[in-house]
Amino acid sequence: MSDKPNAVSQTGTESASGTLRRMEGEACCDGPFPATRRADDPVMEAKLSSFKALANEKRLAIVHALRKGELCACELETVLDAPQSTVASHLRTLRDAGIVRTRKEGKWTYYRIADTASLQLLDLAAALGENR
Known about the structure:
Arc Repressor Mutant, subunit A; 6 helices
């Protein structure tokens, strides 16, 4: 990619605003684009995975239920008032995103919050929602 603002990307496309500025001979800034501000794909994927996992009412209810400690999958079925297959699917999504961890005890699987950072994120989202 060029160091010039509004330059055409490696894919051969540019933004609509970039096209208009180029046609009008204007640039938004004089210096080169700060490439260090562009997020790395793996970093973006990790963040996106977490947000996607939390962007569901039932998964949020699971995380809320696990705030006070671990629960068995069958207890989470009761909390969600949902069938085992639905709960298992939501738990798999949360586990794959690193939000919950599991512990096996005999034939039972217990779930718990993997890291309090996800709870802090939800608390922050709640605080942002209150300010609207």
